[in-house]
Amino acid sequence: MSLNINSLLIHGGTDGDEATGAVNVPVYQTSTYKQDGLGETRGWEYSRTGNPTRDALEKLIADLEHGKYGLAFASGLAAINTVLSLFKSGDKLVVSDNIYGGTFRILDNVFKNFGITYEIVDTSDLEKVEAAIDEDVKAVYVESPANPLLTVTDIAAVAEIAHKHNKLLIVDNTFLTPYLQRPLSLGSDIVIHSGTKYLGGHSDTISGFVVVNDKELADRLYYLQNAIGGVLAPWDSFLMIRGIKTLGVRMDRHVDNAKKIAQWLSKSGYASRIYYPGLPEDPGYEVQKKQADGPGAMISFVLDSNYDYRKFFKNLKLITLAESLGGVESLVCHPASMTHAAIPAEIRQEVGIVDELIRFSVGIEDADDLIADLEQAIKTSKKEAV
Question: What domains lie within the chain, and their CATH numbers?
Fold first, then answer.
């Protein structure tokens, strides 16, 4: 039976427990499994290699992404590390010009040591993507919308370019989740998630995912998952399954709140620039409408020079200053000194990650309360006339 996304969130993957009739997949809190004889297993050997609770979650994320093979990891960066381990010395990646700072860090400070290089490109500009691909390039790595400037890349168009040159397309879908966007259906070869964010949704567990359709690629990734060992534990897998069940209702509220706040912010005069693909004036608005079922709930804005961004963060009462995003509670961060501090200052400035940039993960609180908190924090951070 073919299910729509809201039903898949609850019944996708492994639905309940056949052995007992439990409606939830049990937590198989074990490191190893009894074997009935040499080479005689019941399908399980060792929990780094495979665990029934993690297996249920991996099947679920594959279903949600319209993929065939899912893999769950102990963090989003463990997932990224495993994907990057597909490549070898001399290989090169074309990478979106504003991506999560941790992704840049692992590329620049870890994999570059192994001879794997990268070129930073505005992947929303298809001509620049095409021009950057040479024989050393093995993959294009995209975030859309990108972190933190919400740049929208036309995934289908970049997939066409990548495949024309026999390259892989990797898409980080963390900001939108499969509820709003399914990159494999748009031509991506590999989809990555930080499950810590919207998929878990409650700021209580860390996880990462990879989803693919190609069997050969899946086998290579499963080998690396087992060899590297950064797998998701059974209890965290259970928490992720539980969180995913409410993804639809949460994302609907997140997006409704974000749209209302972005519209208010655009008329307030408090921001010199707003990044949100749900606003018609945003450069990515039309592409976002074409390839996704909504603009997401991340807003970034540059605080007007009349206000002190340091005081703004101090003066918030309801909204929390913290790393991460995608939880039910609203969070703000300062990308230049927090999430993207690993990126050199000159690159941050060039792409627009300025000191006055604020990234806002809109939660599911009352939107009017969030607007009131933003307004009072901004007003009370006004600089004194000199």
Answer: 5-244 (3.40.640.10), 248-379 (3.90.1150.10)
